[in-house]
Design brief:
The chain has 322 residues and is α+β, with helices and mostly antiparallel strands. 28% of the residues lie in helices and 33% in strands. The strands form two sheets. Strands 1, 2, 8, 9, 10, 11, 12, 14 and 15 form a nine-stranded antiparallel beta sheet that branches. Strands 3, 4, 5, 6, 7, 13, 16 and 17 form an eight-stranded antiparallel beta sheet that branches. Strand 14 and strand 15 form a beta hairpin.
């Protein structure tokens, strides 16, 4: 197993040579993978502007979608543990996730091709991801991040107003924006929040969701590509799926969740030789010994209520298939 510094040096070398690459890393940071962008035997991927495959019109349709989440009482037990840490001052925002077993008539590859999302990744025989959340983008030396915090069923009466007026969601979003702003400041200058709390609509096989995002930008040095590995690793793991303060919160996550996230909430990156686009690996289905596992969660603060957070976790168990 290669050490993080060895992976960083490889990424820096590829960046310096302006050589395109795909980079995947799991949440725990123990399974980094550097792949060639056109390696379709191992991975299929799509960003907003690029992909390594030609879209095909799958004839499959979704006719079965059954979920078996963790029991609420089990969820609440761990939720209460997190609240104890919050009240002790160990963390003030923690992204708590859990696995949900799913049964569907579709294969992972069917789900991948049928789904509509900003980012799609299929690591063959491993997982499918259809992520709405950018990690960072680098275009002509400007780095941008788009943290996503705040979700509501779009069919809820006055959904937009309720979501934007929710004090718990506002506090959570403020915390993540501040965390990401600090993360960007470690690698960039002139960091600023360009757009604060804008709404995006996500269509799913269950019901549409509204999500809240912000845009934070900064300026990188002209030779940033030579240090692209350092830039990526400095910001890991993503603040939106860990919490704040990041280091201590990750320690609590690993003790509390009682399962391994794996590539879920890790990072996918595509470097085209000049610019970089990347996403957080959320909205994620994993093939575990022939069983499909959907992993989802949400941010917990001192204002959180267990029933609401459990409900939000289940609302995120969807596929973006219309």
């Amino acid at each position: 197993m290669e050490k993080p510094q060895q992976i960083i040096e490889k990424l820096n070398s590829l960046g310096a040579k302006e050589e395109p690459f795909i980079f995947l890393v799991d949440f725990e940071g123990v399974n980094p993978q550097i792949l060639k962008p056109n390696d379709t035997d191992k991975i299929l991927w799509q960003t907003r502007s690029s992909s390594n495959f030609e879209s095909i019109k799958s004839k499959a349709t979704i006719s079965k979608w059954e979920i078996t989440p963790v029991e609420f009482q089990q969820y609440k037990k761990e939720f209460n543990t997190i609240q104890s840490h919050i009240h002790n001052g160990d963390t003030y925002l923690l992204n708590f996730t859990q696995p949900t077993k799913i049964k569907t008539n579709l294969e992972l590859e069917d789900i991948f091709h049928l789904s509509s999302a900003s980012y799609k990744i299929l690591l063959k025989k491993s997982f499918a991801c259809f992520s709405p959340e950018t990690f960072v983008k680098i275009i002509d030396g400007k780095i941008s991040s788009y943290p996503m915090k705040g979700t509501i069923d779009a069919e809820t009466e006055n959904a937009e107003e309720k979501l934007l007026a929710d004090t718990k969601e506002l506090a959570e979003h403020n915390t993540i924006v501040d965390l990401i702003r600090n993360d960007l400041s470690l690698v960039a200058e002139n960091v600023q929040v360009e757009k604060f709390r804008y709404l995006e609509r996500i269509k799913t096989n269950r019901s549409d969701l509204l999500q809240v995002s912000s845009k934070i930008t900064g300026d990188l040095p002209s030779d940033y590509a030579r240090n692209i590995g350092n830039i990526i690793y400095t910001m890991l793991p993503a603040g939106s799926i860990s919490g704040a303060p990041k280091k201590k919160t990750v320690e609590i996550i690993q003790k509390t969740e009682k399962y391994t996230r794996g590539f879920y909430t890790g990072i996918f990156c595509y470097f085209d030789g000049k610019n970089l686009d990347s996403c957080v690996l959320i909205r994620y289905i994993e093939n575990k010994n022939g069983e499909l596992i959907y992993k989802s969660g949400g941010g917990i603060t001192f204002k959180s209520e267990a029933e609401n957070e459990y409900d939000e976790m289940l609302k995120k168990v969807y596929v973006p298939i219309i």
